[in-house]
Design brief:
This protein is α/β, with parallel strands linked by helices. The chain folds into two domains: 162 residues, 3-Layer(bba) Sandwich (FAD/NAD(P)-binding domain), CATH 3.50.50; 195 residues, 2-Layer Sandwich (D-Amino Acid Oxidase, Chain A, domain 2), CATH 3.30.9.10. It contains eleven helices and 18 strands. Strands 3, 4, 5, 6, 12, 13, 14, 15 and 16 form a nine-stranded mixed β-sheet that branches. The chain has a six-stranded mixed β-sheet with strand order 7-2-1-11-18-17, covered by helices on one side. It is globular and about 65 Å long. The two termini are 30 Å apart.
Length: 422
């Protein structure tokens, strides 16, 4: 088949790789100058376990009401109480209640964690086969500041166990033995240790996959903004900004949710919310005082990760249209948290410090959109929210199998865009 892909982030490039592997003629259209210039550019790189990444799924991190409190709120949702942002938050809250009522054993949580594990196996197989370096690091810690936080994670630890995710609550001494770079003055009660957790450099991984896809015949067109996709008979017409003639393909996989017109092409009413977050990346000053892999401050919902020779702190959540200026309160909270746990680990005064704001499309049930739409030849692989890097390879492989008519895991059914039909 002749298949077009819209978007060259980690989801789009993973899809291009898998479809090219299957022998399809693949063309990728990307509005930026290069791959991984959007949400895949400088994210936290947190992979497994998926369900502990901030804003990964309703009910798995801090309850919504805890994130909205006071002037130090972790979440920004501008607009009137009856506005679009708050209607979306109410749907997220409903999903959170359902997840908690099932004691975190919801089909959504199980599907996310199984897909994450599947993706990890695929990623390791590709890396080994082609001797790739993804700047990966093993092991995660969820840092807990109080005994109350320790107690609140008991149920979560048990739930992770039922999903075959190794997890253990540690006291402060055991935590410092695993992570000696932690400040001795940090208010540490203990941590949840996740020995199989993993982080990677998402941008580097995307660039490496791009090269593999091109070697298999995929074509990449940058600075090509797709303004509309239409299913016409046995073909799909793809319209680019500045072009009068349509590009014809047998199928199109939309891997970018940036354009409302592309979402509308599915014939579905999709509650995809842009959620904006920040990262601060700085050169390491002394690796001995930096995290061995990645640490999540539970109360602040901020991830501190080691990406090659850099330290990166990630967090913040702003719903809807992003303001022009960066949120200085969020950035100050990120710097403060980094200095709480790892003072002196990064060269924060270096001219190489990079502050980045990225946007990820998120659905109110926390699940991506994966599979066919109501329109013939138009497929979706988008809306991965906080876990695009974690799910990309698995989603791409499942989508390639769906297009080929092969059997896919039963869990993929809960990811179908058709769940929003009607």
């Amino acid at each position: 088949m002749d298949i077009a892909i819209v978007g060259a982030g980690i989801a789009g490039i993973s899809t291009a790789y898998e479809l090219a592997q299957d022998g399809h003629r693949v063309t990728v259209y990307e509005q930026h100058n290069a791959v991984a210039e959007g949400a895949s550019f400088a994210n936290a790189g947190w992979l497994t376990p998926t369900l502990l990444q901030p804003w990964s799924a309703p009910g798995w991190t801090l309850p919504l009401h805890a994130q909205l409190r006071g002037k130090h709120a972790l979440l920004e949702a501008p607009g009137p109480w009856l506005g679009h942002n708050w209607r979306w938050l109410r749907r997220w809250k409903m999903a959170e209640r359902q997840c908690l009522s099932q004691k975190l054993h919801s089909p959504a949580a199980q599907a996310l964690e199984q897909l994450s594990s599947f993706s990890q196996v695929l990623r390791h197989d590709i890396s080994t086969a082609h001797e790739l370096n993804t700047e990966s690091h093993q092991g995660h810690l969820v840092l807990l500041r109080s005994a109350r936080e320790m107690q609140s994670l008991q149920a979560l630890t048990e739930a992770l166990g039922t999903l075959d995710v190794p997890a253990q609550l540690l006291d402060a001494a055991a935590t410092r033995a695993i992570e000696p770079g932690l400040s001795p003055e940090a208010p540490l009660a203990g941590a949840l240790h996740l020995p199989e957790g993993e982080t990677i450099n998402c941008r580097q991984w995307t660039q490496q996959l791009r090269q593999l896809a091109i070697q298999r015949g995929a074509q990449l067109h940058t600075q090509a903004t797709v303004r509309d996709v239409q299913s016409v008979g046995q073909q799909v017409h793809l319209l680019l900004t500045g072009d009068t003639a349509a590009h014809l393909h047998d199928a199109v996989v939309v891997c970018s949710g940036a354009s409302p017109a592309l979402l509308a092409s599915s014939g579905l009413q999709l509650p995809l919310m842009p959620v904006h977050g920040y990262t601060i990346s700085a050169p390491l000053r002394d690796p001995c005082y930096a995290p061995q892999a990645a640490a999540l401050d539970w109360s602040q919902q901020l991830v501190i990760s080691r990406i090659g020779q850099r330290l990166r702190i990630s967090g913040g959540a702003e719903l809807g249209t992003a303001p022009e200026a960066h949120n200085q309160d969020t950035l100050a909270r990120m710097y403060r948290t980094l200095n709480d746990w790892y003072p002196g680990a990064a060269q924060l005064s270096s001219p190489q410090v990079q502050i980045w704001r990225g946007t990820r499309g998120t659905l109110p049930d926390g699940l991506p959109l994966l599979g066919r739409t109501t329109q013939a030849g138009i497929w979706f692989n988008l809306g991965h929210g906080a876990h695009g890097a974690a799910l990309a390879n698995g989603c791409a492989r499942i989508l390639a199998d769906q297009i080929a008519g092969r059997e896919v895991p039963a869990e993929a059914e809960v990811l179908s865009p058709l769940r929003f039909a009607g």
